Amino acid sequence: MREAFGATFIGPEGYLNTASYGLPPTATVDALERVHRRWAAGTAVGSDFDADIATGRAAFADLAGVPVSSVTMGASVAALLGPVASALPDGARVLVPEGEFTSVSFPFAAHHGRDVTVTEAPLHRLPEAASEYDVVAVSTVQSADGARVDLTALRSATEGSDTIVLLDATQQLGWLQLDLGWADVVVSSSYKWLLGPTGIAWGAYSDHLVDRLVPHHANRYAGGAPWDTTYGLPLRLTDDARRFDISPAWFPVVGAAASLAWISTLDIAEVTAHCRGLADRARTALGLPPGDSAIVSIPTEHAAARLQEAGVRASVRQGAARIAFALYNTEDDLDRVVRALNA
């Protein structure tokens, strides 16, 4: 058991794999246990989850810096990007970074039959090339190595153009506050730095884009009042981004809302300082180049095996060991890494 920022966590010592999935606060675990008990007792009803959906939506809007009316609830990043990809005209050109997480690139690449092309470029070259494309799609913090796109340059390069800017903030939200409200699309899963379960993701579509999208998964929740839009025609959808809502996964949305509500109360600048401070000290101790991310890529030979032997939970991406410092990590976790790799 450990404490961080006023919450307690059950997670083990040496857990540095938040870039794969985050550990929930005990309050989130308790909320999930309560709803599972209601399920087992047969006392849970669908309307019980409406408040969790509203809480999660508002907290995501706050963390992403977008209007709550622009926020929709999905099951995954890829599913939230599907309507955007489907709305592109035949022959559209999409730009992504080299090695981008495929939940960002595949929804567009799947439309190759309509001559939609997806071009990869080095991350640092995205801003200078973006205005030449119909869409630029990029993770604000790269999953594989934690590299960050220059959002200021990207915004400057695309402002006033017809280029759709799509930002996946999955590896950012929860530890780093950035201005994302200017983008056309902002998406994020809940199960990494937002410390929720899998099965819930959030997206925001800008006003000028939302009317171009078709709610392919229209359902009773897309009507905004699901208990009034359960049966029969005509089609009745909300005027805002809720018309793209999926029918929620009940239990994951409880966990997602509990963690999001707590994170949204934190001073994210303090969280950033904590996470980056540990990451910076790890880079210095391991002789790695400086960085500006909570994710550290370690290309040292046999690093992943040595970390595992030392009880460090990490992952391997693009041939390098990847560690990620979250708000619940400590100096002891850092020391464990340094001892393992400097022995």
What keywords describe this structure?
PyrdxlP-dep_Trfase_small, Aspartate Aminotransferase, domain 1, three-stranded antiparallel β-sheet, Aminotrans_V_dom, PyrdxlP-dep_Trfase_major, aminotransferase, seven-stranded mixed β-sheet, alpha/beta, transaminase activity, Aspartate Aminotransferase, domain 2
Describe the structure.
By secondary structure, the protein is α/β, with parallel strands linked by helices. The protein has 2 domains: 2-26 and 267-342, Aspartate Aminotransferase, domain 1 (Alpha-Beta Complex); 46-263, Type I PLP-dependent aspartate aminotransferase-like (Major domain) (Aspartate Aminotransferase, domain 2, 3-Layer(aba) Sandwich). The chain has helices at residues 26-41, 50-64, 77-87, 102-109, 126-130, 151-158, 207-210, 250-263, 268-286, 303-309, 331-342, and strands at 2-4, 7-9, 71-74, 93-97, 117-121, 135-139, 164-168, 185-189, 201-205, 295-298, 315-317, 320-324. The protein has a 7-stranded mixed sheet, with helices on both faces. Strands 10-12-11 form a 3-stranded antiparallel sheet, with helices on one face. Strand 11 and strand 12 form a beta hairpin. Helix 1 packs antiparallel against helix 8 (250-263), helix 9 packs parallel to helix 11 and helix 10 (303-309) packs across helix 11. The longest helix is centred in the C-terminal third of the chain and has 19 residues, at 268-286. The protein is globular. The two termini are 28 Å apart. The mean pLDDT is 96.
